[in-house]
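Please check the following.

. . .
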Amino acid sequence: MNVQSLIPGGGADANAPQTVLIVDDSRAQRLLLKTYLRKMGHRVLEASSGEVALAVCQFEQPDLIVSDWVMPGMDGLELCSAFRALRGDRYGYFILLTSKDEKHEVAAGLDAGADDFLTKPVNATELRARVRAGQRILAMEGALTATLQEMRQLHAVIDRDLVEAQKLQQSLVRERHRSFPGLDVSLLLRPAGRIGGDLVGLFEVNEHEIGVYALDVSGHGIASALMTAQLASQFSGSVPGRNIAITTDAQKQPVMRAPSETARRLNETVLNQMGTEQYLTLLLARVEPATGRVVLTQAGHPHPLVHRANGSFEIVGTGGLPVGLLPGASFTDVEIQLYPGDRLFFGSDGITECPSAGGDMLEEQGLVGILNRHRFARGESFLSRLLEDLSAHSGGTEFPDDLSGVLMDFGEP
């Protein structure tokens, strides 16, 4: 942005001739003012009353109005208020002619929208000074209007780019639901804005195990979204070397690393290779769909919830440090055994910290209540109801933080 465009005379001509409307019931006074203003080079319009002045403003948009205060019918104060109520595409500078010098009278004029005052009888030099002051204000308003228009155009371009970025980010989650023998995995990803810093996903490792993850990059917006794209590449594919979570066994077959080891490696990668001050929370699980065995590590992400078939709940995990915060950080694995009818859910803090209209967070107990209320809903059906309940809790459909989650339904209930 050019700073000069915000300075009077820098982006608009503060000395350019203006259209000035004179409003006075005295013909002699109008003639005197018209003579002065025309000598200054301005285009001059006349009105003998406030009512006529408003009629003129319907087809003309004067830059300045010089109006007597005391007039029959609509006085200058009423005219000023009515003029301000008119919807124009630019500002009009209003000068009141008055013999009043009481402070409360001046205050009334300012409250009505007057910009300046001239005492009668009018002096040509003082009139010139007042009009020049108005020209400077109008030049500033013109420069600001032009800058605002430029900013709107720039915002439109950025918004179009963000729409495309949103499509690209959503494409990182290619599948929102995947069925394996004995296990259904459903994914939720809803940014707070066009783009966000949350990411969820799954990948197949071999015929016995899959990897499932949820992460939340610190901050919001473009920087966080760019980092999620980098992190998505760390968990892409099922080939060792392309996916940080996959290695090989003695027979050179792909197997999943211990989630805690993957978190350790990712921590060093973020600190040493990504060159960012951002960090992330992570929940990474190695899952055996056939047996229901789950080994997971929790790195600062909210605690996973196990909803047993009998209706009971278990809050699992050790908390842990976020990834990319401290060099040499270590992480811990936790093992969970799922049985037919059980389900495992883990989501970002955008869910547990979702505020109500009064500012109360949902918290873990609120999430437990939603899980229990919809205990017979599975997969994407449950995630849709979760969003509905969060919307009802917050009192609207807009959320202050990104929402993401993973739901694993094991076996038949």
In short: The domain at 172-410 is CATH 3.60.40.10 (Phosphatase 2c; domain 1). DSSP finds ten helices and 18 strands in the chain.
